[in-house]
Target: Cytokinin glycosidase domain-containing protein
Amino acid sequence: MHPPHNQLSSFYINQTLIFHHTFTMADNYPTYTRPSFDSICLTGLPKNELCEGLKGAVKKYRAYLKQVMKAQVKWLAEARIHEQAAGLPPRDFGALETLPCMTATPMFGYRETIELNRIPADPALLYAYLPTEFVQPCVENRNLEAVPTKYFPGVVLAFELSPYDPWITPKSVVSKYQQQGCNTVWREDVQSFLAIFPTDRFTAEGDGTWTRCITRGHFDIVAHGEMSWPGPSTSNTDWPTATGWE
Model:
């Protein structure tokens, strides 16, 4: 015997309410808040002290990553509790439980792991050389999205060439960019540096050049600073700028 129409309607309404409640429970994973790292500014540090300055920044960053790991493990434990309560199968959150990741949103996208020992140097950092006007928003926003394609042509370009290298010159930096097809990068563009660790999204391109396959997403800037280049030279062997020889 069928129930009266109003009971049937009420039944369907209740079913709808139950459905919506179940949907909310299934999607209601805990909120993840990633600790923030404030990039260390090394502007004004003499070149012969930059290496130690960068090592100090790395030491602070490594200590910070311990906080990141604690936050990841705590969030993952809460996520597993939620899955059990909601009767959900456990999701695959990649390396979130075992390695520090760049990701600020573990529910979505790729969990990008930070690789602290991949570069054969001490400190084991990579560097991007850019106009200061683009370095500042990268530092403030904790990502690399402010950099134009002139310098990051669809990928992040970073180099093992360090700002404390005794042989570094505007010419050597610009040459790195131009070898990657960035032919409109000139000496006046390489005003400041960003120091970063690679992740598992970085690929070695040879000759100390590395690329990250995307330019989007959260990214920690370990340190930054303005370069202190020698004054303009009148030598005919100096590097050409966008407006000619200096």
Q: What stands out?
A: The longest helix spans residues 47-86. Helices lie at 5-27, 47-86, 132-141, 170-179. The chain has one domain: 40-226.
